């Protein structure tokens, strides 16, 4: 089915995901670690559409969650509790309580203080909380500063020395069971060496824990693998997996990989229709019915999603910005790109929009969020309806 008919059938703006590609990407991760005990815990934050999650669940995926909402959604999608982990720098007590009650695989902890809170809540529940500690290896992941997480200046994880104290403490507690060690140095990573440097540092630490007699079973390598938004050279999955495994000689932990973007990013496109064009003496603008509230990445990270006007790929092009209707100059989907002359109704396709597209969308300017469609063996299926206007104010209470 072509994008024109999808846009006609489901209207725009619209997200379309190719589930065949999704399957291929997910199985690629599984294959890369084949032969070793491993679990791919898909990072829900990249795209948490329920149908997409059930589809991944059917392929054997686990889930990396960063809120109790994500934990509940993963469970709802049929991901077994023993494949769900809960990470994140600010877990509330009620979230910890619920996660322990649901008996998920483990919680990735971000501080000593958090560990004490988890211990207290586990004690209240009469449970032993399975935990893992996120180590901050202080390594520059060489990515956009907003999505770099492995340096001491970032809020994530704890220094190795602190992590060590945490494991020693956990060993003495009747309400904690340290089952894993974790790191994640950033997202959209296109260089393997910082990942392997981090892995080596954490692997050495992991081995020192084993030497202390701690039975830590899971080695959680986070996510972060980049995709080719602008023709970047991406890290081959095989090299990634082999590189990680080479840091783990003489030990056999179960590998947990929290991939998000690399599984879902290149499966999705964002379709938006041209409303009209305007130009001034300096600039040409194509105004479309999608906006930064639908696809936030260009505004937030100056990310470039390759785009084209469907059916006009071979026409002469001139520079322009592709902008939405939101009342901010930061509202653009593409800046200084070459596009043919467009008319109202033309369809603009933005590629690589499967990850951090819909999941970061908002209702800013009281705009309804787009619909989402899955292509399964080429057949379209609506997996999330476009929001209705009424739903936008349904939870608001009248003052008078
Ligand atoms: N694990 C942890 C602890 C994370 O913080 C993240 C992403 C992931 C796994 C998944 O990373 P991935 O494989 O998707 O790179 N909104 C940004 C990306 C933020 C990533 C946050 N953490 C963007 O649109 O580029």
Automatic annotation (TrEMBL):
Pathway: Amino-acid biosynthesis; L-lysine biosynthesis via DAP pathway; L-lysine from DL-2,6-diaminopimelate: step 1/1. Keywords: Amino-acid biosynthesis, Decarboxylase, Lyase, Lysine biosynthesis, Pyridoxal phosphate. Signal peptide: none annotated. It is an enzyme of class 4 (lyase). One of its GO terms (molecular function) is diaminopimelate decarboxylase activity. GO terms for biological process: lysine biosynthetic process via diaminopimelate. The modification N6-(pyridoxal phosphate)lysine is found at residue 45. The keyword Lyase applies. Its EC number is 4.1.1.20. Residues 21-264 form the Orn/DAP/Arg decarboxylase 2 N-terminal domain. Residues 14-354 form the Orn/DAP/Arg decarboxylase 2 C-terminal domain. The keyword Ion transport does not apply. The active site is at 327 (proton donor). Pyridoxal 5'-phosphate binds at residues 224, 258-261, 356. Its cofactor is pyridoxal 5'-phosphate. It catalyses: meso-2,6-diaminopimelate + H(+) = L-lysine + CO2. Substrate binds at residues 261, 297, 301, 328, 356. Pfam families: Orn_Arg_deC_N, Orn_DAP_Arg_deC. Homodimer. Belongs to the Orn/Lys/Arg decarboxylase class-II family. LysA subfamily. Specifically catalyzes the decarboxylation of meso-diaminopimelate (meso-DAP) to L-lysine. NCBIfam families: lysA (TIGR01048). This is Diaminopimelate decarboxylase. It comes from Helicobacter brantae. The gene is lysA.
